[in-house]
Amino acid sequence: MPAAESPSADARPILPGATLGILGGGQLGSMFAMAARRMGYRVEAISDVADCPAARHCDHLHVGSYDDPDFLTRVGRRLDVVTFEFENVPAAAAESLAAVAAVRPHPQVLFTTQDRGREKAFLVEHGFPCAPHRLVRSRDELIAAVGELGLPAVLKTAAFGYDGKGQIKLTVADDVDRAWTAVGEGPAGPRECVLEGWIDFECEISVVAARSLDGSSRAFAPSHNSHANHILDVSSVPCGLPDRVLADATKNAERVLSALRVVGVACVEFFVTRDGRVLVNEIAPRTHNSGHLTIEACETSQFEQQVRAICGLPLGSTHQDTPSAMANLLGDCWGNDPAGAPREPDWAAALAVPGVRLHLYGKSAPRTGRKMGHLTATAATTAEAIERVTKARRLASRA
Ligand code: AMP
Questions:
Q1: Which of 125, 137, 297, 383 has its CA 20 to 30 A from that of 35?
Q2: What is residue 199's DSSP assignment?
Q3: Residue 4 pLDDT > 70
Q4: Does the pLDDT at position 190 exceed 50?
């Protein structure tokens, strides 16, 4: 593991008026830009597409290839510090930026967490609890791994997987061939994969946490996450699990950030087993969908916390003022009119539900499964917040 910091960085705070860079142009980048600009920073985003959510909220959008070091070096020279909003960018892109600007977290964190094989090796090396797993590079290795781990199991590509893409569940021995062909055989030949033993979990939770230059960290309360078709559907906090489980998840998340020497924000996702253990599922070196409700519910949002952490400012309080729930708005909510054109959901109906707020990301094409926005509700209890936010989504939906 390298030093936590890029060689060009120092410990002086980066103050309002400075220019912050964000690698990636998605909704996490646009919400970061809104928080940073409110605090008086300039924000420049780097994306390989011009029509992206961050374009509407940053001071400047640089469009170019993540594989073009000259482009990245040119842009990096304009920036005081750069962070990430998604991990599916080549680690070399972050290295190019790190040669001319502070990159937080360090590109090595991106390198470790963007590949399931490297991420699992990191977890094992540092003694973090996770699902039993094997690295597999061929059909024969998959057969051997199934023999060792048993079934059911899930085969996942090591690189570039998200929202359940590039993964398949194996239930019986006959599934092995089909699974290898579907996931292991890439267009350019066999791909490195991870086979994981199936965890019959009680629920899934996540912890968003921030760590500053001096090594201190602050975590938001764990979020309970339910998924539909492998995509996050509803998050809610507080999540009503025993204090011991919540403390275990929070401690493990902070230890993960510390072991990775993260400077910035990261999210650690967990499976909670039926006997109350927490197993690390995934690490994202950035803000997270399950942390969106911090905008309305917490003293400091995950996006302001990201600004504070990468700028070397004191971390804000993560205290949550009120129970809250978030429901994702996928393209599926749009439906189609008789001519086949998308029908805008009934936002007025959603906003008539008390305590509900609307966030739309400005994406033009509402495709099935595409994250177009989210709703957040606050209420006196978590159950009421979930009830409000799912009711608002149901009322808005044209599906
Ligand atoms: P991932 O992309 O690894 O987060 O997987 C997406 C979703 O698939 C998770 O949020 C779980 O709901 C499910 N999943 C992934 N791995 C496992 C596993 N080993 N056991 C049970 N469910 C899993």
A1: 383
A2: P
A3: no
A4: yes
Cα distance between residue 100 and residue 175, in whole Å: 49
Q: How much is the CA Rg of the chain, to the nearest whole Å?
A: 21
Confidence of residue 1 (pLDDT cuts 50, 70, 90): very low
Written as one string, the DSSP assignment of 266-319 is EEEEEEEETTS-EEEEEEESS--GGGTTHHHHBSS-HHHHHHHHHTTPPPPP--
Beta bridge partners of 210: 218, 265
pLDDT of the residue at 242? 98
Task: Give 176-185 pLDDT, tens digit per residue.
Answer: 999 999 999 9
- Residue 184 is given by DSSP the state I
Give nearest CA residue, ligand 1 atom 5.
Answer: 164
| Residues 130-173 pLDDT 10s | 999 999 999 999 999 999 999 999 999 999 776 667 899 999 99
Nearest CA owner, ligand 1 atom 2: 164
Atom of ligand 1 nearest to the CA of 153: 19
pTM of the model: 0.96
Rounded-to-integer distance, Cα 118 and Cα 200, Å = 24
Q: Please tell me the residue having the least CA distance from ligand 1 atom 13.
A: 230
Eight-class DSSP state of 53 = G
CA angle, 179 then 184 then 190, to 5°? 150
Q: What span, in angstroms and rounded, lies between the C-alpha atoms of 240 and 43? A: 38
Euclidean distance between CA atoms 252 and 236, whole angstroms: 20
DSSP state string for 309-347: HHTTPPPPP--B-S-EEEEEEEGGGT-B-TTS-B----H
User: How many angstroms separate the CA atoms of 165 and 146, rounded?
Assistant: 21
Separation between Cα atoms, residue 58 and residue 68, nearest integer Å: 22
Q: Determine whether the shortest distance from the Cβ of 206 to ligand 1 is under 6 A.
A: no
Asked if the bond preceding 238 is cis, omega within 30° of 0, the reply is: yes
Ligand 1: does its nearest atom lie under 6 Å from the Cβ of 160?
A: no
Q: In this structure, which amino acid lies at residue 104?
A: R
| b (16+ CB within 10 A) / e for 229-255 | eebbbbbbbbbebeeebbebbbebbbb
Element (H, E) at 395: helix 382-396
Distance 131 CA to ligand 1 centre (A): 10
Is the CB of residue 183 below 6 angstroms from any atom belonging to ligand 1?
no
